Each structure stands twice: as C-alpha cells, then as structure tokens.
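Q: what sequence does this backbone want?
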C-alpha cells in the first residue's frame, strides 16, 4: 500500500529564503492509493546540515513520534534559529494501519538578517535631476574580489522604491521588489541565493532603481507620496569553505549613474532611450569612472520585514490575435484578452527613431483606442532605437491594463510576431478549477480569474489601468473568498493584513485603502466632504473578514492570534461610534455601484457592524477565548435585535427595500426564522419585479446567490447567474467582456460608455459570485468545524440550465474534486475525490441514492467519507418543479 509524504512546505512556501519568523510552521501532504487513509503520527527532524539529516540526526529539532493527524501549521519547537541559519528538514508519517512512510525528500529554509544591527549597508540613491518631473532610473554598481572556495553567498536587498538586482551580468529576483507597503512604517526585504553566480576573482553586483510606489505616482495621490526619489539597500554575505565571512554592502564607495530609462512610472509609463545604454555595466571590468558618487541617506526609521507576499512575476505570454492598420498609419493589435502587464516589442530601424506602444482596454466606436477612462494615467511606453539590428524592448517599472495595443511610429510593417503581451501579477499559484456545461458560465469563471490576475499585484488593487490601482479594502473583503478558491492567497492576504494593521487608526478604525499611501496623512477625508472616511462599512470590516477567510480556507490560527487585538479594537470602535447599537448615517460609499437601488447607510453600516461582531465571536472561539466568544456573540444578537427594531417591519420588509438589505440581513444572521421566510420572499419579489435581474452593488453582490440558495431559492440564484439582460454578469459577456467590469453599466447598448471619470473594465469586486460557484455549483465548501479543508462539505446544487460541472480545489491537504452530470432522464451522477488524511461530508441531491453501485439506505442523503474516490448516482428532480 502506498503511503508517502509529499510537498513539504515551510511557512506555506517551498524552500523559502530569508525568513524572519522564529517559529516557522511546517506543512506536508500525504499520498495514498487506499480509501480512508489517515495519519496517526508523524516525526519531524530538523538539522543544521543535510549530512546530519541524512544520518537521521535532528540536531536542531527532533519532534519525536507525535500522535496526531495534523499535517499543517506544525510549529517548530527546536533550538533557537540563528540569523542567516540554513536548516534542513524531513518528515515521516504513520498511517492508521500502522504503516510508516519513508522519510520525505529533504526540504530547507534559511533565516534572514534577524536584527537591525546586522544590516551593515547604507541607503544609497541619486540626487534628483533639476527640472525633471519624471526622473531617470538610477543604475548602481560595485565591483569586488572574491576568494576561491565560496560555500554560500546570499544577497539581502530592499529599496525605498523598486529595484532590479544584477549579479555578473545576470538579472536576479523578481519584478517590483520590494513590493508595496506603507513605507513610513515598513519595507519588505528579499533574500537571494547568488552562490552560483559568483566567481573567484573579480565580480560585479548592482541594481536598477525605480520610483514605484515610494516616489512615483500612486493612484490619484500624485507622486512623492513617501519620498522624493528611490534608495537602495543591499548586503551580499559570502561564506567561504574555511569558515571566513565577507560582506559587500551599499555605501559611498558604490557608483551610480543615469542610464537608458529616461523615466519609468507605474501610472505614467516609461521612456527608454537605447542610445544611452550602459553596455556591460553589471559585469566586472566596466569603466565607471564617469559615474557619480551615490547620495547616502541618513537612515530609515521603519521596520525591515522579511518578504511576506508572494513575488510578482511574468506568469504568461500572450500573442495578439489580430492587427489592423489605421488611417493615421499606426497599428492596433487585439490581444484577445483584457490583461495586465506590458508589451514586448521587436523592432529594426534607424538610430534615434521612436516607437510608442499605447495601451487601452476598449475601442471607441470609430475603432480608435478608448483612453478616456485612464484619467491622468498614461499607458504609453516609448522606445528610442539605437539602430543596431533587431532590438527588443520591454519596460521595467510600469505596468498597464489593456486588451488593445497601438504601435505608433513603428519603422516598417509590424505583424503578429512583432509584439507579445507579458502577463504580470503576484505569483499566487492556481488552486481551483471549475468548468461547466455552459460556455457563458465558463467565460464568467475565466473573467473572474483574469480579474484576480490583473489586480493582485503586491496588494489587492481595485483596477490596473487608471490612476488608482489602490488596495481598496472593501473590494478585497468581498472577493477574498473567491480569490482563495482560485489561487493560493495565504501569504498574499496575510501580507495585506499587515498593510491594514499599519494604517489602522488610533481610534481602532480600519481604513478604506491599505497601504495608506498618504491617504490619511493628506487628510483626504476632510478635504472631500467627509467622503474618504477611515471606517466605511464593508471596507473597514475587511480587517475581520480577511483573517476569518484565511482561517476558514487554510486553518491558520496564527493570523487570528496575531491580529486579535486589532480586530477587537475595530469592533469596539464600531460599538463606541454607534447609538443604541445602530450605526449613524454618516457619509460612505453605501452599496457601491448598485443599480437604481440605494441602500440606506445606517442599515448597511449596522448590518456590517453585526457581521464584524459575529465573526469576532467565531474568531475568539477558534482561539479558545470562550468569554470573548460569548460576549461578542451576545453583541451580535443585540445588534441584530436593534436592527430588527429599527429597520424591519412585522411583515419582514426591511428599510430601503433593496436586494442588498435583504441579502445582508439574511446572511449576517439578523432575522428570526419567521422573518427570514418573509424576507426571502421580498428579495425574490424584488428580483422578479426587475425582470429576474439583480440591482446589488459591491457589498450585496457577494452574498446575493448564497442568500437565495441558503433560503430555498436556488432557482432564482441560477436565474440571476445566467440572466443575459442588463444588469447582469452575462450582459458584459454578451458584449465581449474578458474580465469583470467595475460597473454593471460600464458599457450598455442604450448608453454607450459610462462616465470616463470612473469606468474600469478590470475590477474584480462584482466577480465575487465566484465564491458561490465553487461552494454551490461545483459544491466544494469549507467546513468551519474542520478549517483548512481538513474536512470539506461537498454539496453540489444542480439547477438552471447547467447540466454538468467539474470542480476541483487544491487544499493544504491535497486535491478535492466534485464532478457531476445531470442527464435528461433525471439521472444525477456525482464523482467525489477526497485527498489522503482528509474527509468530506457529501450531500447528494435527489433520491434513491446509489454509492459505488450499492443502494444507500433509504432516506440517507449525506455521507461521511474519508480519502478516496466515490461514485454516486441518484434520481433528481429540481426543487422547484
Ligand atoms: C472606486 C473604486 C473602488 C471602490 C471605491 C469606493 O475608487 O470603484 O473599487 O472601492 O471607489
């Protein structure tokens, strides 16, 4: 029988470098070919050398044989971990049949520089060019000699701004490092193993610096939000075989110069003059005598935190699907997909010729690029040729949201091979997949996942094209669950939680946007009619919703524990700022971008207050804080009672009468059983009165289909899913959408484009229906009693015009699958796969259920299953016939 440990991870990552977590957690998965395979014990060995580990010596930690079925978040409990320590580990597992697996592969991790004193370098930058609004990107370099016998060389680096690391002519590392944080408070540091790239003798190390979020344009907040220009900090630590060590760190002896990047700004695009290239600058022997001395910055008061978020990478390359010559002699390409990243261009031409790539999401009726919605963003990159055969160009410190590319000034006749689109985002690995019998629904699934890819770039941004691209917390919370089905966002959202904590107000309020990006400092909310308040309902609540989502999907209690105090402060802030537990009708975004359905602010804000209290109670429960659990559960009940008193009439009507008020009241537990029945009737009636259409904005939309499904109106939920008339998801798809639009009416047959002042075609918020699709259509649901998919609830709910669905989810325990088909004669077939050492409660719709060819006991519709694959069959007639 097979019983094997696979996929060992440390802090959710495979062999990570430079951790600053002193009690890292281990994860593994198990493989078995048997049903009901479960772990009964494990043993972990951690060693300081691979040789010790090979001899089965855990000189750092030997967990001993631990009787436990756990395979995730196992906390290291060995000797104290040292700065720059390199640790190797393996694990073996005993199953419930007493079989002990072989030892796993050897995994490793390294620790980073654990104290500030160990950072020996200075922050170096280049003095600003006079009279230049957009500054050239500085190149920095240093040559050094290395002796023979290098055992290990690690570069630790970061920047206030962005950097791209170069070692001996090679680009090392990822895009947009060190990522977006509130630089007033913290910056992330990266560690790279550069051992293979160093040689005995002369070596060169350097970097290219970009303005990024630190000194470049951020959203509509202008530039220089945190500082005027970028600074770089690097330390290369070399260990030799003989035990000696050496450090090369940024200081006044480095050299700095401007180069071909005339400017590169996230929002304003890039200009690259290839005639100014510094050929060989990152190799030893380069003549830098003309370079300047760097400007050394006095210091930095914020925290240096080891990289928390997954790195940003190019994950895919797209070829255009068509090209068209315009009357002006430019060329417009269609990439076939609204994507985020940049264009790589191939070109031949005369020295000094300039080619421009301009990017847009849509076309105007006359076929030209629709640029109006970019506001002050300039999605243009300019390349000035050096005139040297075939030249290739892609920008460095900017990105664009686009489907169409216009090449302006291209010398010669470009074709479909002239450009490619590079898709760029935080590299959160795909975890979920869902395919149905319906091509339009499949397109919706694709649009949702492209929306996520386009907007998860260091932080969850709202949009990738106009001058905004900010970490709006409301958008993030409503989409968090969908996001975590699609991709592994465990660390991405853990990092975003730090961003939220960094800008939590002294009052306890969580902000609308994180990182703060000068938002609060610039007192945006005062200057604009109280518009940008720091505590908007549905936005600030992200501070509780996101940790809860991480707990549900990954079983992470550390995130709850770490931020528990902050979450309590948020709920207490709401309590203090309410009257009789009713939240006042202060200015806020309401149910943002709803369609002819304004939800009253106080109803919405009170509902979310109750929800935050309810989640806090569950979080306290998960942490074993029984008193708090009870206290916040009571608070939730009290708010619910106040809500009913204030807003709900006896016939179940809720003030405002919008779909969203009913949806929130149903989902946040604000109604009695009797009122629930009435409320769902009013909700369905409103949908009916609008011709089977929705009216919800950002806050209502995520709960709309779940509320209907949980309250017996799956039929209405399916009707909304596949509705093709405006407003609906399918309306945009019918009109060619390949991403989720910011607004239901971003473009309509009757009105054309909505106001260009706010009209993104790549916003994920309205795509939060993805959650319902995984949970109910596909049927893979997290069980809060066994979080992190230790056990799943499999509950596919066939309906509407869908006749089959294949869903899978790669959990921390392995892959769950739920595939069903509904045949014309009413035969329902379901195949369920449960990974080893995991379980599922399967609810099979229909009657006369057969499991693996054997009739189940009459009346049984749910099944407790261990690992393995199972085939069900039943007779199904839909619940509304
Ligand atoms: C706009 C965007 C964003 C939303 C805010 C309130 O800037 O639509 O997604 O969160 O408004």
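A:
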């Amino acid at each position: 029988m097979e019983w094997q440990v696979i996929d060992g991870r440390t802090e959710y990552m495979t062999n990570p470098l430079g951790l600053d977590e002193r009690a890292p957690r281990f994860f593994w998965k198990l493989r078995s070919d048997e049903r009901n395979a479960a772990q009964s014990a494990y043993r972990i060995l951690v060693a300081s050398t691979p040789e010790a580990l090979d001899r089965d010596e855990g000189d750092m930690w030997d967990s001993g044989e631990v009787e436990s079925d756990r395979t995730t978040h196992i906390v290291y409990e060995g000797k104290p971990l040292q700065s720059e320590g390199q640790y190797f580990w393996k694990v073996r597992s005993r199953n419930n049949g007493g079989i002990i697996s072989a030892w796993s592969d050897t995994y490793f991790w390294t620790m980073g520089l654990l104290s500030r004193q160990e950072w020996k370098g200075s922050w170096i930058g280049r003095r600003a060019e006079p009279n230049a609004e957009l500054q050239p990107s500085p190149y920095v370099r240093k040559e050094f000699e290395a002796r023979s016998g290098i055992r290990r060389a690690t570069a630790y680096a970061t920047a206030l701004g962005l950097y791209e690391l170069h070692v001996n002519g090679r680009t090392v590392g990822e895009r947009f490092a060190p990522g977006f944080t509130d630089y007033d408070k913290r910056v992330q540091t990266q560690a790279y193993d550069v051992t293979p790239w160093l040689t005995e003798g002369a070596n060169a190390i350097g970097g290219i610096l970009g303005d990024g979020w630190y000194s470049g344009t951020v959203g509509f907040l202008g530039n220089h939000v945190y500082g005027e220009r970028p600074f770089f900090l690097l330390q290369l630590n070399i260990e030799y075989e003989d035990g000696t060590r050496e450090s090369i760190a940024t200081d006044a002896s480095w050299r700095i110069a401007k180069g071909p990047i005339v400017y590169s700004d996230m929002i304003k695009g890039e200009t690259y003059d290839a005639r100014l290239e510094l050929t060989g600058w990152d190799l030893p022997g380069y003549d830098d005598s003309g370079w300047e001395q760097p400007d050394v910055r006095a210091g930095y008061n914020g925290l240096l935190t080891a990289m928390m978020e997954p790195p940003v990478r190019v994950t895919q390359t797209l070829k255009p699907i068509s090209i068209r010559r315009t009357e002006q002699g430019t060329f417009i390409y269609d990439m076939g997909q609204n994507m985020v990243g940049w264009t790589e261009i191939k070109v031949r031409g005369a020295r000094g010729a300039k080619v421009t790539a301009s990017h847009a999401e849509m076309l105007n009726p006359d076929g030209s690029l629709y640029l109006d919605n970019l506001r002050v963003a300039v999605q243009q990159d300019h390349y000035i040729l050096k005139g040297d055969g075939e030249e290739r160009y892609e920008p460095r410190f900017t990105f664009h949201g686009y489907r169409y590319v216009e090449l302006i000034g291209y010398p010669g006749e470009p074709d479909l091979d002239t450009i490619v689109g590079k898709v760029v985002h935080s590299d959160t690995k795909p975890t979920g997949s869902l395919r149905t019998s319906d091509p339009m629904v499949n397109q919706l699934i694709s649009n949702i996942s492209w929306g996520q890819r386009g907007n998860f770039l260091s932080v969850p941004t709202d949009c990738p094209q106009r001058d905004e691209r900010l970490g709006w917390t409301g958008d993030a919370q409503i989409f968090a669950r969908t996001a975590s089905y699609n991709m592994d966002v465990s660390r991405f959202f853990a990092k975003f939680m730090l961003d939220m904590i960094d800008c939590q107000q002294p009052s306890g309020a969580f902000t609308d946007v994180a990182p703060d990006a000068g938002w609060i400092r610039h007192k945006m909310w005062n200057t604009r009619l109280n518009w940008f308040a720091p505590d908007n309902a549905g936005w600030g609540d992200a501070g509780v919703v996101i940790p809860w989502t991480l707990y549900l999907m990954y079983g992470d209690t550390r995130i709850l524990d770490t931020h528990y105090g902050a979450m309590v402060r948020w709920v207490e802030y709401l309590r203090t700022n309410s009257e009789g537990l009713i939240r006042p009708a202060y200015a806020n975004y309401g149910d943002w971008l709803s369609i002819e359905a304004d939800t009253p602010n106080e109803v919405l804000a009170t509902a979310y207050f109750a929800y935050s209290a309810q989640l806090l109670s569950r979080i306290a429960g998960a942490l074993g804080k029984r008193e708090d659990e009870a206290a916040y559960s009571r608070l939730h009940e009290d708010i619910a009672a106040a809500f009913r008193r204030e807003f709900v009439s006896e016939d179940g009507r809720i003030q405002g009468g919008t779909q969203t008020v009913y949806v929130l009241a149903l989902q946040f537990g604000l109604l009695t059983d009797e009122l629930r029945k009435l409320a769902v009737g009013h909700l369905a009636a409103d949908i009916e009165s609008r011709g089977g259409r929705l009216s919800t904005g950002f806050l209502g939309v995520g709960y709309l289909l779940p509320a209907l499904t949980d309250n017996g109106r799956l039929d209405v939920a399916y009707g909304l899913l596949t509705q093709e008339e405006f407003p609906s998801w399918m309306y945009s798809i019918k009109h060619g959408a390949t991403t989720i639009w910011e607004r239901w009416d971003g473009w309509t047959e009757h009105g054309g484009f909505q106001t260009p002042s706010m009209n993104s075609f790549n916003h994920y918020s309205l795509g939060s229906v993805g959650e319902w699709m995984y949970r109910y259509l596909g049927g893979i649901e997290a069980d809060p009693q066994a979080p992190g998919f230790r056990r799943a609830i499999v509950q596919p709910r066939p309906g509407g015009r869908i006749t089959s669905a294949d869903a899978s989810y790669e959990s921390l325990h392995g892959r769950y699958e739920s595939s069903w088909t509904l045949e014309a004669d009413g035969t329902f077939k379901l195949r369920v796969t449960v990974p080893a050492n995991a379980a599922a409660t399967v609810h099979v719709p229909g009657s006369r259920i057969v499991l693996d060819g054997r009739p189940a006991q009459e009346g049984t519709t749910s099944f407790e299953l261990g690992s393995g694959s199972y085939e069900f069959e039943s007779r199904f007639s839909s619940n509304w016939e």
